[in-house]
């Protein structure tokens, strides 16, 4: 006997992919309980994404903190983890899939074998013939390649681009200088095409501020961060206080967000920093009146890591003031909280606050509408799982060659000693950063703060030099060349590669900007008897003493080039010219800092825009 198809078997509108997004949002929202809505507003860390959290309580999003990764960090481990989480989420009462977010900030840098591109500060150096005529095409291509590698691991969302206009990158004591493109707002604005690469280019008639994604298979949701003024804190203190007028905040730090919002950026991350003493995470004026009102942003705002915890010190006697942090942040306009470990406490506190009338239901509905809108647009309802056909894209040759191009174009050189000869008898390569993939990638690579060593496949600078010289050339390598080697080696020239250890965020705040590991001494010893090229691998300008500068024959700022060292060799040996010019001031002494282009006493070692070519006299 045929079973009557009950009315209840009809597909609910929110599960109908052909229905308009806003109709799907309204239908699903109407079906949700307060507790289910509250759960959608939480982002938890992958290590606590349990069956209870995802299937029973319905957490809306999961992330991996910097360095947190499954198994051997291979693409297959990532897809296995995330597909498993989606299966749990889809088994919840309403079957709302999670959005998984990760910091793919210079390629898919958490994944072993992924292509790791130069960090943003290196990408900000490239411009066409004349200063200021930026060509952001390269950034868009890097965004596209990153999106493909992120999708290949089953992830729909990256916390990039960082569009901090680093006012303090002219004050390189800030540990996040390398995450921004430049101190010049116009340059940063022109490079927000990385968001277009990640999400795709919206059509001309796309509604302003509405989230956009061109392709579920090949694009990922972007996240413009950290809103707003993170790069302008006093004395370069990470998560510090940006003291400036609203006009300066809007004209300098907010400018890149206008472009990202116009390009349909799906999410914005609030900054840990303060504006004139008010924490961004509870600043209603900037999060709601400006970002959502004046700028018309219709995606959702996510907090930074434990960002609301900083809104109040824990009250020792009564435990924490977490309920107060939640109330202040959501009433200011936050939509999702990057918790990451306090999910059930968060859930209880939020439900209590709404039932007590401390947070209006309209605010909860606005936040959940925004989150659901982005989820429907991301395609995660129709395509919650990874696509195995994409796995081979991770670290593919095409992306490596793109990274070569980016590395080539990210370097600046001081004077014409280059190109290096390839047909000489013997050369010396030395320095801590000559043969270390981890050091040349910098922070946010495999580990949160990065790490030295062969942390992921790639080509070190030494390996690239060996591949580039002629067969008759002997390459002698010593991490720290000895006096004996220097004196007796009879080298045609030496390449000394020095720089910083990797770091991220506050860990990178420094007041001493000397070259670590006595790099200056090594340079002086080598250059005193051998024609010497120095390559500096760093996320900011470092101290280069005058006497060092006078003894060497050429200087290249390689910034943090990533896995593809061949891109450096391409320029060193003349296969491609240097086209990079400094995106930031290179200070003469830390005593000068902060040192900004336009200052009355502007006397840097190298000014913004400095850079020489080999073949163009
Ligand atoms: C960090 C960073 C932010 C990152 C987030 C998640 O604290 O400030 O840039 O996206 O946490 O890792």
From TrEMBL:
| Claim: Cell membrane is one of the keywords in the record | no
Q: InterPro entries per the record?
A: Cellulose_Degrad_GH3, GH, Glyco_hydro_3_AS, Glyco_hydro_3_C, Glyco_hydro_3_C_sf, Glyco_hydro_3_N, Glyco_hydro_3_N_sf
Domain Glycoside hydrolase family 3 C-terminal residues, every copy:
415-613
Q: Molecular function terms in GO for this entry?
A: beta-glucosidase activity
Q: Which Pfam families match?
A: Glyco_hydro_3 (PF00933), Glyco_hydro_3_C (PF01915)
Instruction: Alphabetically list the UniProt keywords.
Output: Glycosidase, Hydrolase
SUPFAM superfamilies xrefs: (Trans)glycosidases, Beta-D-glucan exohydrolase, C-terminal domain
- Please name the Gene3D superfamilies in this protein's record: Glycoside hydrolase family 3 C-terminal domain, Glycoside hydrolase, family 3, N-terminal domain
Q: Which residues form the Glycoside hydrolase family 3 N-terminal domain?
A: 33-374
Q: Which GO terms describe its biological process?
A: glucan catabolic process
| The family this protein is said to belong to | Belongs to the glycosyl hydrolase 3 family.
Name of this chain's protein: Uncharacterized protein
């Amino acid at each position: 006997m045929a079973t009557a198809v009950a009315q209840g078997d009809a597909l609910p509108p929110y599960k109908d992919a052909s229905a308009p997004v806003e109709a799907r949002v309204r239908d699903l929202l109407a079906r949700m309980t307060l507790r289910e809505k509250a759960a959608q507003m939480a982002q938890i860390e992958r290590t606590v994404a349990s069956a209870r959290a995802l299937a029973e309580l319905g957490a809306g999003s999961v992330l991996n903190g910097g360095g947190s990764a499954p198994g051997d960090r291979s693409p297959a481990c990532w897809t296995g983890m995330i597909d498993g989480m989606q299966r749990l989420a889809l088994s919840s009462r309403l079957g709302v899939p999670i959005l998984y977010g990760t910091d793919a900030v210079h390629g898919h840098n958490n994944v072993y074998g992924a292509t790791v591109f130069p960090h943003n500060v290196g990408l900000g150096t490239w411009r066409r013939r004349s200063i200021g005529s930026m060509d952001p095409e390269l950034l868009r291509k890097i965004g596209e390649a990153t999106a493909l590698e992120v999708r290949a691991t089953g992830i729909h969302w990256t916390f990039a681009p960082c569009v901090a206009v680093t006012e303090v990158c002219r004050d390189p004591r800030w540990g996040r200088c390398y995450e921004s493109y430049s101190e010049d707002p116009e340059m940063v604005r022109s490079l927000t095409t990385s968001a277009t690469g990640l999400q795709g280019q919206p059509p001309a008639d796309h509604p302003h501020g509405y989230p956009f994604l061109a392709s579920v298979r090949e694009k990922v949701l972007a996240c413009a961060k950290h809103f707003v003024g993170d790069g302008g804190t006093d004395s370069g203190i990470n998560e510090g206080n940006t003291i400036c007028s609203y006009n300066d905040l809007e004209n300098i730090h907010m400018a890149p967000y206008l472009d990202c919002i116009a390009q349909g950026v799906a999410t914005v991350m609030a900054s840990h920093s303060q504006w004139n003493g008010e924490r961004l995470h509870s600043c209603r004026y900037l999060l709601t009146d400006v970002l959502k009102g004046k700028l018309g942003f219709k995606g959702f705002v996510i907090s930074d890591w434990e960002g609301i915890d900083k809104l109040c010190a824990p009250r020792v006697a009564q435990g924490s003031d977490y309920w107060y942090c939640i109330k202040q942040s959501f009433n200011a306009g936050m939509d999702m909280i990057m918790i990451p470990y306090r999910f059930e406490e968060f859930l209880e506190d939020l439900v209590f606050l709404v039932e007590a009338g401390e947070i209006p239901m309209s605010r909860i509905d606005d936040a959940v509408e925004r989150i659901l809108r982005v989820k429907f647009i991301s395609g995660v309802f129709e395509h919650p799982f990874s696509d195995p056909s994409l796995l081979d894209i991770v670290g593919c040759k095409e992306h490596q060659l793109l990274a070569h191009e980016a590395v080539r174009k990210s370097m600046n050189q001081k004077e014409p000693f280059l190109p290096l000869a390839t047909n000489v008898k013997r050369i010396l390569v030395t320095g801590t950063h000559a043969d270390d993939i981890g050091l040349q990638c910098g922070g946010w690579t495999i580990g949160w703060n990065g790490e030295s060593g062969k942390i992921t496949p790639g080509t070190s600078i030494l390996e690239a030099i060996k591949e580039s010289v002629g067969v008759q050339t002997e390459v002698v390598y010593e991490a720290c060349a000895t006096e004996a080697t220097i004196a007796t080696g009879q080298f045609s020239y030496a390449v000394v590669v020095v720089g910083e250890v990797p770091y991220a965020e506050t860990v990178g705040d420094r007041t001493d900007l000397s070259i670590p590991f006595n790099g200056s001494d090594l340079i002086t010893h080598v250059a005193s008897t051998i024609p010497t090229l120095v390559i500096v691998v760093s996320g900011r300008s470092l101290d280069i003493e005058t006497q060092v500068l006078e003894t060497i024959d050429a200087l290249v700022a390689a910034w943090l080039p990533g896995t593809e060292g061949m891109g450096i060799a391409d320029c060193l040996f003349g296969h491609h010219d240097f086209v990079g010019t400094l995106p930031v001031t290179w200070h003469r002494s830390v005593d000068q800092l902060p040192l900004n282009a336009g200052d009355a006493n502007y006397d840097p070692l190298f000014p913004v825009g400095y850079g020489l070519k080999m073949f163009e006299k």
